[in-house]
Amino acid sequence: MENAPCSTRPQPLLVSLHSTELVRPEGVNFPLPPRLFLYTQPGRRTQIVALCGTTGKLFPTTTYDRGPLQLVGGRQYATRQALGEHYQAQHAAMLPADGAATLLGVDGSIREVRPEKGRKTFGLAQLCAALKASYIDVHCPQHGPYKGYILVFDDGGKDRRRPINPLATAAWFETYPLEQYSPVDVVAGPVLLMKSGLMR
């Protein structure tokens, strides 16, 4: 079970809705505000919550329940529950296979990425190209479910106003729970999740 997060039961996920739109009947979709998140846990009702950035408190809202939700450039989901089930499935599949990384897209997609042919580790040029970044940053969780993994992301992602990454931010909140850490932080832009030994 080397590839499984250290978790004994399914944990709630707090997934950013920054790259999600409310579908309107007149065909003009409404982008959701950056501080809206989907709070989802297997076997429970999924909620849309507003996150207070200074206190980390979550405030449930039903304001955005009037129509289907659509991932920008992606699939449409009839309800928040269906979108929550999608993210739970993506989250369960996001840990990389041995010798590979998982690219976590800002649209909630996951894709396997392997080092270039003839290499056992990723080079800087390949990481920058995969993330469409000039500079990268690496975060290595020292505890929690992703200990032994690293998150590689665009160092200027927030400054470039890249969308909040839903799965990477969910992983961040699993490692740094809102009730224990402040201020609240998010991860912007695409992210590579991999074992720390794959980056040299």
Describe the structure.
The chain is built from three helices and 13 strands; from the N terminus they run ββββββββαββαββαβ. It has helices at residues 80-92, 124-131, 166-175; strands spanning 13-16, 20-22, 30-31, 36-40, 47-51, 58-61, 69-71, 76-77, 101-104, 110-113, 136-139, 149-154, 191-195. It has a five-stranded antiparallel beta sheet with strand order 10-9-13-12-11. It is globular. Mean pLDDT is 88; it is low at 1-9.
**How helix-rich are the residues, as a percent range?**
10-25%
Percentage of residues in strands: 25-35%
Secondary-structure element order, N to C: EEEEEEEEHEEHEEHE
Low-confidence stretches: 1-9
Q: How does the overall form come out from the CA principal axes?
A: globular
Topology, element by element:
Layout: E1 13-16, E2 20-22, E3 30-31, E4 36-40, E5 47-51, E6 58-61, E7 69-71, E8 76-77, H1 80-92, E9 101-104, E10 110-113, H2 124-131, E11 136-139, E12 149-154, H3 166-175, E13 191-195
Antiparallel strand pairs: 1-4, 2-3, 2-7, 4-5, 5-6, 7-8, 9-10, 9-13, 11-12, 12-13
Name some characteristics of this structure.
13 strands, 16% helix, globular
Task: Provide a concise account of the structure shown.
The protein is of the alpha+beta class and 200 residues long. 16% of the residues lie in helices and 26% in strands.
